[in-house]
Design goal:
817 residues; mainly beta
Length: 817
C-alpha cells in the first residue's frame, strides 16, 4: 500500500453521524497501521485520497477532520463490503477528481473513477449539503448515487455509468455531464446546462417554480428630524421564478407625514421633510404572475422611520479672558459652560437629564472650539446632574475664539450657541485695556485677569468697580514681581470713586490715591505701597497689604480693616523684601473716619504718626502691635509717635505686641515715641508676657513718659501688660505723662519732664523702644505691683479693642518661602 499525503499535511480526525458510519470508528478490514497512515494524509483544508484502499468511506471516517475539499487522486471505491452507505458531509463543498504531483505529472484536476458496480456501494449526501462534484466517473449501480431531500448538489464534467436518483425535496444541477444510461429517477428538481443532454425521467419531478419573495436589507431606516430634510434608502431583494415580471410599488402608510416613498434602482427610498415627530412606516409591495400564469402573487415588506423633535441645544456661562502661555485655565473662576436642551414646546432641561432618557440615548455631544489654535482642551463632563464644556490647559495663540458644543444624531448635527473666549498676547497693560473700554462703563471684569504691567494707568472717573473675579479667594492680578519695586503706578484721580475686588496688585505697582478720590480694596491684596495724597482709602472684606500705607496731608482712612502679612506673604519677588517697620504712616493732618482697625504682622508697628491724626466723634481706631514670633525682631508697639498727635472726639484703642510661638516672649508697649494722645475715649494696654519656657518675663508698660495723654480720666483706661512666671505686670498710667484738662501749665511742658520715676526695670524709657525688660529682681523689690488676680476687671473698651484686633486677623493666606 502506498500513501502520498500532500506536503505539510496535518493530522485531522472525523466523526460522521450519517448512513451507517459510527463516529470515530475505523473499518474492521483496516489495520492500526493503515489507520495511522491514512490519517497522515489530511491537510488543513483538504483531504487527498491517494489510494484505492480503504474505500472513500474509510478515508472520510479517519482523515477528513475540518477539510472542506476532498480530492480523489486514485481510482477508489465508495464503500467496503458491509459498510453500507457512504454519506458526504455538508462541510464538504467540493468533491473533485485529482492528479497528485509526482515525478511525471504536475498537480491538477483530472477525471477519476469513483465507485464500482457493486450492490453494497451507495453514495449520498447529507441534508443541507451544497457540494460541487467535478471530474468524476461515477460507476455506481442504478439508484445507488442518491441526492436526498434538502441537498442541492451540482455535478460538473461528470459521467454517470448508471441511473442517478433524486429524492423528493432534493435538487441537482448537471453541467456538461453524460448520462450513459440515458435515464434518471428524478422525484425532486433537476436542471441541465451546458452540453448535458437531458435524460429520460423515470420518476415524477417536482415543480421548479419558486414563489415570489421580497426582503428589505433593513427593517428601519436612519432617524430623521422634524422640519429638516430627510433621505435614506435600503436595498430590496426579490426571489422566485417570476422575478423578471415583478412590479414594485411603495407608499408611506401615514397621511401628511411629509415623506415620500419610492422604489429606485432596486432600493426603497424615503425622502422629504418630516411634518412632525413620530414613527412612520413605508410599505413596498411586489406583484408577479403565479405559476399557472392565470393570477398573481404579491409580497410586501414594511420599513420604519423614526422622526425626532428639532431640539435646541445651548450653552450658558461666560469664559474668562486669559493670556498666551497662561495655564491652567481651570484656575480661573469662569472656565466652563453648562449645556442645556430645549424641546419644541419650550421645555428646557440640562443635557445630563436629557441624555438619561430613551430619547436622549440616540444623541451624542462633543465640545467644539473654533478656530484652531487656542491651545486649550475642551472636554465634555456629563455627570453629577449637569453637563459642562470645560476648558483646561495652557492658552495658545492670541485671538478671539468661539466655544460651544455640537450634538449629533446620525447625519444630523445641532450646533449650540457659542461663548467668546479671548486670549491676549500678554503684552497688554492696564492702561491699554482701560483705554479700550466704552466711556461710561461703570463695572469691568478685568481681562485678561492677569495683566503684567499697569503702565501708569489712571482710573477713569466713570469706572466704579473693577473685578478680578466674582469669587472670593480667586484673584485677578495687576503688576509683577520682576520689575523694580513700585516702579509702576495705578493712580486714582480726583473725582474717581472705585472699588478693586478680588485683585492682587503686585509689588511692581504703587497705588496712588489723589485728593478728591476714593479707593476701596475689597477682598484684595496690595504687595506694593499705597500712597494717599488727600484722598480716601478703605480696606474691607479681608483685604491685606504687605507694604506700607502712607496717608499724606488731607487723607482719610474710612471704615477699614488694615491687615498686614508682610512677614509671611509674597508675590514671588526675589529676594523677598523685608517687612516695613510700620504698616500705616501718617504725614500731616489725617482723618480716621468710621470704624478702623490696624493689625500688623509680627514685629511691626501698626501706626506711625508724623503729623496729626484725628478720630472724629462716633469713630473708632483700634491698633495692635506686632507680636514677637518667628519673624526677625521682637514684639512691637501698636503706635509710634514721631512728635505727632492723635486727637478727636472719637475713641482710640491700642494694645502692645505680645507673644507668638518662636518669639522671646518679651511684650511691647501700646505706644512709643514722643507725642500727644487726646481723644474722647482712650484705651492703652501694654502687651502681656508669655513663653513656653519657665523664665520670668515682665509685662509691658502701657506707654512711655514722652507720650502725653490729655484724655479725661473718665474716658481713658491705661493698663500695663501681665507678667508671666513671676515677672512683674507693666505700669499703666504711671508709664505715660497725664495732663488733665484742668491743668494750666506755666508755659509749655516738655513731655517727660517728670519721668524720673521709671518702672519695670527701665521699660518705657525715653529711648522709646517700647519693650519691657525681663525681670531681674524679686517681686519685693521697689513698690508693690498688683498681681494678675488683683487687677480690676478689664474695661469694656479694652475688651472691644481685643475683639476688633482678633477679627482683623481673619485674612488667611499662604506663608511665603
Amino acid at each position: 500500500m502506498r500513501i502520498s499525503p500532500k506536503a505539510g499535511a496535518t493530522v485531522l480526525s472525523l466523526m460522521l453521524v450519517s448512513g451507517g458510519v459510527v463516529a470515530g470508528s475505523v473499518p474492521t478490514v483496516a489495520s492500526a497501521q493503515d489507520v495511522a497512515t491514512i490519517t497522515s494524509a489530511a491537510a488543513a483544508s483538504e483531504l487527498v485520497v491517494t489510494d484505492n484502499y480503504p474505500a472513500l468511506y474509510g478515508w472520510l471516517a479517519n482523515s477528513l477532520g475540518d477539510a472542506t475539499t476532498v480530492k480523489i487522486a486514485a481510482t477508489c471505491g465508495v464503500s467496503d463490503r458491509g459498510n453500507g452507505t457512504t454519506t458526504i458531509p455538508a462541510q464538504v463543498t467540493q468533491l473533485v477528481g485529482w492528479q497528485a504531483k509526482s515525478f511525471i505529472y504536475e498537480e491538477g484536476e483530472k477525471v477519476r473513477d469513483l465507485g464500482y458496480s457493486s450492490s453494497y456501494e451507495t453514495l449520498t449526501f447529507a441534508p443541507g449539503a451544497t457540494t460541487e462534484v467535478r471530474s468524476l466517473t461515477l460507476g455506481l449501480l442504478d439508484d445507488k448515487l442518491v441526492v436526498p431531500a434538502g441537498a442541492n448538489i451540482t455535478f460538473k464534467n461528470c459521467t454517470f455509468a448508471n441511473r442517478v436518483k433524486i429524492e423528493k425535496g432534493g435538487k441537482a444541477t448537471f453541467e456538461n455531464c453524460t448520462f450513459s444510461s440515458g435515464t434518471i429517477l428524478n422525484n425532486g428538481q433537476a436542471s441541465y446546462t451546458g452540453s448535458t443532454r437531458e435524460p429520460t425521467n423515470k420518476g415524477t419531478a417536482e415543480s421548479a417554480f419558486q414563489d415570489l419573495g421580497l426582503v428589505a436589507a433593513q427593517s428601519a431606516l436612519s432617524d430623521g428630524v422634524h422640519t429638516r430634510e430627510y433621505a435614506d434608502a435600503t436595498r430590496l431583494t426579490l426571489s422566485g421564478s417570476n422575478v423578471d415580471n415583478v412590479e414594485l410599488a411603495a407608499q408611506m402608510d401615514q397621511q401628511g407625514s411629509g415623506l415620500v416613498a419610492t422604489v429606485e434602482d432596486g432600493s426603497l427610498k424615503v425622502s422629504g421633510t418630516p411634518a412632525a415627530a413620530g414613527t412612520y412606516t413605508a410599505t413596498v409591495t411586489a406583484t408577479a404572475p403565479d405559476e399557472a400564469g392565470t393570477s398573481t402573487q404579491t409580497k410586501s415588506v414594511t420599513v420604519s422611520v423614526k422622526v425626532h423633535q428639532n431640539y435646541t441645544f445651548s450653552v450658558e456661562g461666560t469664559l474668562d479672558a486669559v493670556r498666551t502661555g497662561q495655564g491652567d485655565s481651570q484656575d480661573s473662576s469662569n472656565h466652563e459652560l453648562e449645556v442645556f436642551v430645549t424641546d419644541e414646546a419650550g421645555n428646557k432641561q440640562t443635557y445630563y437629564d436629557f441624555s438619561c432618557t430613551e430619547e436622549g440615548h440616540d444623541f451624542s455631544l462633543s465640545p467644539q472650539v473654533s478656530p484652531d489654535g487656542c491651545g486649550l482642551n475642551a472636554t465634555l463632563f456629563n455627570a453629577g446632574g449637569k453637563a459642562t464644556v470645560t476648558l483646561s490647559g495652557t492658552a495658545g495663540t492670541a485671538g478671539t475664539y468661539q466655544v460651544g458644543a455640537v450634538a449629533t444624531l446620525g447625519d444630523y448635527t445641532f450646533a449650540t450657541n457659542t461663548a467668546e473666549l479671548r486670549i491676549y498676547s500678554g503684552a497688554e497693560t492696564l492702561a491699554s485695556q482701560i483705554a479700550g473700554l466704552t466711556e461710561g462703563t461703570g463695572e469691568w471684569d478685568m481681562e485678561p485677569y492677569e495683566i503684567d504691567r499697569s503702565d501708569n494707568a489712571v482710573i477713569p472717573t466713570w469706572l466704579h468697580h473693577i473685578y478680578g473675579s466674582h469669587e472670593s479667594g480667586l484673584y485677578g492680578q495687576i503688576g509683577n514681581a520682576t520689575d523694580a519695586f513700585a516702579s509702576d503706578t495705578i493712580t486714582i484721580p480726583a473725582g474717581a470713586d472705585v472699588t478693586f475686588e478680588n485683585i492682587k496688585v503686585n509689588s511692581s505697582v504703587k497705588i496712588v490715591v489723589e485728593k478728591g478720590a476714593r479707593l476701596t480694596l475689597a477682598d484684595s491684596v496690595a504687595f506694593g505701597p499705597i500712597e494717599v495724597n488727600g484722598g480716601t482709602l478703605a480696606l474691607n472684606r479681608s483685604s491685606a497689604t504687605t507694604s506700607t500705607i502712607t496717608l499724606n496731608d488731607g487723607s482719610t482712612l474710612a471704615d477699614s480693616e488694615v491687615v498686614s502679612h508682610a512677614q509671611f506673604l509674597t508675590d514671588g519677588r526675589k529676594p523677598t523684601p523685608s517687612a516695613p517697620e510700620s504698616v500705616v504712616i501718617v504725614n500731616g493732618n489725617v482723618t480716621f473716619m468710621g470704624e478702623n482697625s490696624i493689625k500688623p504682622d509680627q514685629s511691626q508697628v501698626g501706626l506711625e504718626v508724623n503729623g496729626s491724626a484725628r478720630v472724629p466723634l462716633g469713630s473708632t481706631l483700634t491698633v495692635t502691635g506686632g507680636n514677637g514670633g518667628t519673624a526677625p525682631g521682637e514684639a512691637a508697639s501698636a503706635i509710634k509717635l514721631n512728635g505727632g498727635t492723635i486727637s478727636g472726639e472719637g475713641s482710640l484703642a491700642a494694645t502692645g505686641g505680645s507673644y507668638e510661638l518662636g518669639g522671646s516672649g518679651v511684650p511691647a508697649t501700646a505706644v512709643m515715641g514722643e507725642g500727644t494722645l487726646s481723644t474722647g475715649g482712650l484705651v492703652l494696654a501694654g502687651g502681656d508676657a508669655d513663653t513656653v519656657f519657665g523664665s520670668a518675663i515682665n509685662g509691658a508698660d502701657a506707654g512711655v513718659k514722652t507720650v502725653v495723654v490729655t484724655t479725661p480720666a473718665a474716658g481713658r483706661t491705661i493698663t500695663g501688660g501681665k507678667g508671666v512666671n513671676g515677672g512683674k505686670d507693666g505700669l499703666g498710667e504711671e508709664s505715660v505723662t497725664i495732663r488733665e484738662a484742668s491743668e494750666e501749665p506755666n508755659g509749655p511742658t516738655k513731655p517727660g519732664d517728670n519721668s524720673g520715676a521709671g518702672s519695670n526695670g527701665g521699660a518705657g524709657a525715653v529711648s522709646g523702644t517700647g519693650s519691657a525688660q525681663q525681670a531681674g529682681a524679686s517681686a519685693s523689690d521697689g513698690a508693690s505691683i498688683p498681681q494678675t488676680s488683683d487687677v480690676a476687671s478689664v474695661s469694656p473698651a479694652v475688651a472691644l479693642a481685643g475683639a476688633v484686633a482678633a477679627l482683623a486677623g481673619g485674612f488667611a493666606l499662604h506663608r511665603r518661602d
